[in-house]
Amino acid sequence: MASEKPARILRAKSDLTAEQIDGLTDKEAWRLMDLCPQGRVRVVQGVSKTLAILVVGPEPGPEKVRKAEEVGAEIMGEDQFAAFLETGVVGGAPGPADA
After folding, report:
1. pLDDT, tens only, 75-94
2. Most-buried pick from 29, 70, 84, 92 (CB within 10 A)?
3. What is the pLDDT of residue 63?
4. Which three-class secondary structure string do you get for the chain?
5. Contact 54/72 with Cβ under 8 angstroms?
6. CB-neighbour burial class of residue 32 (10 A; exposed 0-12, middle 13-18, buried 19+)
């Protein structure tokens, strides 16, 4: 379970439910915070027409991926997303965690 500080920040700055946030480890919660610096990214739990990027783990849900493709969202792994935040470039070869 995430400690109080990252959990409080994620509750305030994301659309994740309290249950989802409580299910995160401290490491996962801080990783989300690191991936979303300075409020440039909003973390949401569902796919909508306004979704620009879907960040997936090793086994993404096929329905969520299908919906993201339907709305034209870019789909990338965590390493690709981290590189995007640093460089602003979308795409490229997947990193080791993205395979």
Report:
1. 988 888 877 777 777 765 44
2. 29
3. 94
4. CCCHHHHHHHHHHECCCHHHHHCCCHHHHHHHHHHCHHHCCCECCCCCCCCCEEEECCCCCHHHHHHHHHCCCEEEEHHHHHHHHHHCCCCCCCCHHHC
5. no
6. buried
pLDDT digits (tens, 9 = 90+) for 13-72: 776 778 878 888 888 788 777 766 656 667 777 898 988 888 888 888 899 999 999 999
Structure tokens at 98: 């993205």
The gap between the terminal CA atoms of the chain, to the nearest Å, is 27
pLDDT of amino acid 5? 78
- Identity of the amino acid at 8: R
Distance, CA of 99 to CA of 13 (rounded, Å): 29
Q: Which residue shows structure tokens 């395979």?
A: 99
- Taking the model in full, what pTM does it have? 0.59
